[in-house]
Amino acid sequence: MLKGTLHWQRLKIYAHNISGLQNSADGAESGVSSPSMFTATISQMVTEIIGPKEAGLKKPTIPEGKTRHLCDVYNSLSTEDKATFLRVVSQQFGTDHDEVLKAAEGLPQAKEKSEGALLKAEERLQAALVPRYHDLFVQIGRLEGGVKHLVDMRADTLDLLSSVKDSAELRSFSSCLREMLSHWFSAGLLHLQRITWESSCDILQKISEYEAVHPMRNWSDLKRRVGPYRRCFIFTHSTMPREPMVVLHTALTNQISDNIQTIVSTPILDEEDVDNINTAIFYSITSTQKGLQGVELGNYLIKRVVRELQAEFPKMTQFSSLSPIPGFRDWLVGEINKVLGSTESSSSEDSGVDGPSSTAPTLLTSAELQKVAEIAGKEDVSPLVTLKKLLQTNQWMGAESMVEVLKDPLMRLCARYLYLEKRRGYAVNPVANFHLRNGAVLWRLNWQADTGPRGISQSCGVMVNYRYFLGDTMRNSQRYMEEQHIEASQQVIDLAQAAGGADSPAGKSNL
């Protein structure tokens, strides 16, 4: 016991020392200032919580205080030393591959003996496949505030993964933690709560701070978004009662909105006319906890909110999103760069633009490019170079004639981006993928729907409605997940066809 206590004291002293605090005499005497000692101490402390590898399925009874101490120490570490902590745990307390192979080799013999022997052999294999840090997660999850600690720890892991090229151990660590959090944050364990102006100040403050799609400018803006003709719903969890997991903002209208300005800038009204409400527009959904990335929350929230609104407004028949298209402009600039690169390599100004020599989907026609050059006054420069600069600087929005010229090509290319561009068979755009997985229809592209700096920089001002036809969502979701089929309106299909390319769809919408 004394030895274990000394290890805890050493780790806590080291945590203070590396955080820039004054070295204590005890820490100096213990000689714990080296990274190797820090690593060894982390390993020892985790072992004392989950037990040595030799213990197998016999887990020790651990005083809660030791697990709590480890969490406190982790929270006191710098970003760099948290990374060291995560690497040590992921590398030293993962799956024992030798044990897995040994357990797997015993299956054929067990099968020959009896059904009972086979079941026991399978149990041993299942136990061997569980990484040892799984038990650490369980111990931490039992603490008050422990689940929140694990959510934050996974957020740190994701940050670390984004900065390293190859770390199989860290990816497995993150995946194991995600699976555990998925069970803890299943739909049946989440609490739906409507937020109003009368809600507690701390919750309202978090709603304002967490809004990532259409940031709030002031308290009046927040009051508008939780007031009449608006609904704000959140999911909370019993382990994080005053912490919104995901936030959904909804506008109550009498038609499917085609721009965000009318939603976020509408003057505050005193009362709702229930008879004038038949449509719900989901215009902002935000997952607030990075550590829950990959855990299904938003889709369940939309489904729950639909049921709530149907109960409140019996005449409500239309449900649709009004969604941003993050990444569209960057994708388009990338496509322009591909064409410019092809042009340079072939020494042909017409390559990839419009003509028989083009092997890539047409971006703009020759006539459209000529108009861009004329309006910009850059006829001596490649029109695509001019277009690229206009898009990157948002200068094209400053001239009505340029906006008009670019409307058709940008709408075509946006349809191509959402409907045709895929990653592993699914929509490359993350917002599109989210709604399509939920069973929504890629219903309508809206020109000049978000004319704010953020909307222009992300998607050239274009927004999209993903419409939920409630009777078809299950079928649409299944076809998307199993066949990678995107249900789309005729408008979207026609625009995508006009964008050209070998993968252009041929056929009619099912709507």
UniProtKB/TrEMBL annotation:
<dbReference type="InterPro" id="IPR007956">
    <property type="entry name" value="Malonyl_CoA_deC_C"/>
</dbReference>
<dbReference type="Pfam" id="PF17408">
    <property type="entry name" value="MCD_N"/>
</dbReference>
<dbReference type="InterPro" id="IPR035372">
    <property type="entry name" value="MCD_N"/>
</dbReference>
<dbReference type="InterPro" id="IPR042303">
    <property type="entry name" value="Malonyl_CoA_deC_C_sf"/>
</dbReference>
<dbReference type="InterPro" id="IPR038351">
    <property type="entry name" value="MCD_N_sf"/>
</dbReference>
<dbReference type="GO" id="GO:0006633">
    <property type="term" value="P:fatty acid biosynthetic process"/>
</dbReference>
<dbReference type="GO" id="GO:0050080">
    <property type="term" value="F:malonyl-CoA decarboxylase activity"/>
</dbReference>
<dbReference type="InterPro" id="IPR038917">
    <property type="entry name" value="Malonyl_CoA_deC"/>
</dbReference>
<feature type="domain" description="Malonyl-CoA decarboxylase C-terminal">
    <location>
        <begin position="188"/>
        <end position="468"/>
    </location>
</feature>
<feature type="domain" description="Malonyl-CoA decarboxylase N-terminal">
    <location>
        <begin position="93"/>
        <end position="185"/>
    </location>
</feature>
<protein>
    <submittedName>
        <fullName>Malonyl-CoA decarboxylase, mitochondrial-like isoform X3</fullName>
    </submittedName>
</protein>
<dbReference type="Pfam" id="PF05292">
    <property type="entry name" value="MCD"/>
</dbReference>
